[in-house]
From TrEMBL:
<dbReference type="GO" id="GO:0008270">
    <property type="term" value="F:zinc ion binding"/>
</dbReference>
<dbReference type="GO" id="GO:0016740">
    <property type="term" value="F:transferase activity"/>
</dbReference>
<keyword id="KW-0472">Membrane</keyword>
<protein>
    <recommendedName>
        <fullName>RING-CH-type domain-containing protein</fullName>
    </recommendedName>
</protein>
<dbReference type="InterPro" id="IPR013083">
    <property type="entry name" value="Znf_RING/FYVE/PHD"/>
</dbReference>
<dbReference type="Pfam" id="PF12906">
    <property type="entry name" value="RINGv"/>
</dbReference>
<keyword id="KW-0479">Metal-binding</keyword>
<keyword id="KW-0812">Transmembrane</keyword>
<keyword id="KW-0808">Transferase</keyword>
<dbReference type="GO" id="GO:0016020">
    <property type="term" value="C:membrane"/>
</dbReference>
<feature type="domain" description="RING-CH-type">
    <location>
        <begin position="34"/>
        <end position="94"/>
    </location>
</feature>
<keyword id="KW-1133">Transmembrane helix</keyword>
<dbReference type="InterPro" id="IPR011016">
    <property type="entry name" value="Znf_RING-CH"/>
</dbReference>
<keyword id="KW-0863">Zinc-finger</keyword>
<keyword id="KW-0862">Zinc</keyword>
<keyword id="KW-0833">Ubl conjugation pathway</keyword>
Length: 151
């Protein structure tokens, strides 16, 4: 008898869970029934959500016009560019201060340039090493011909 009573208590909790689950399903169906004019996708994260959660920061039109504020802030922080890369206009209502970056941070943001700098340093060191280790000395011509000595 005790086991049956315990099972009834568990089933009550399950029914409440099922009720909440049904409520969630109804909400999702409602969200899915929203028209395209009420929904849009963020051009950065591509998440489809209500237009209320999205902003229009530049002059882009069509599907490129909407973006989440947080996505845009993250994008601007990483790219360091304060203009839209699509329409080339300034972002409206976005005030970001450019902070002074040290050389290491700048190199992290520009890996291609960092690779070029590293290759240049290696080339310069190799050239310096080659000049100090491989010297060709030319002596005046003797009867045997020219003599070349490696040091």
């Amino acid at each position: 008898m005790k086991e049956i009573t315990e099972m009834k208590e568990v089933s009550v909790d399950t029914s409440e869970f099922n009720f909440n689950l049904q409520s969630e399903i109804r909400n999702n169906r409602f969200q899915n029934k929203l028209t395209l004019s009420e929904r849009a996708s963020c051009r950065i994260c591509l998440d489809t959500s209500l237009k209320v959660n999205l902003i229009e920061p530049c002059r882009c039109r069509g599907s490129q016009r909407y973006v989440h504020y947080q996505c845009l802030a993250t994008w601007l922080e990483r790219s360091g560019n304060l203009k839209c890369q699509v329409c080339k206009s300034d972002y409206n209502g976005i005030n970001m201060k450019k902070k002074n970056m040290n050389f290491y941070d700048w190199m992290k943001r520009n890996p291609e340039f960092a690779a070029l700098v590293v290759c240049g340093i290696i080339y310069a060191e190799f050239t310096k090493w080659r000049k100090t280790h491989f010297k060709i000395k030319v002596y005046p011509q003797t009867s045997k011909g020219m003599r070349v000595t490696r040091v």
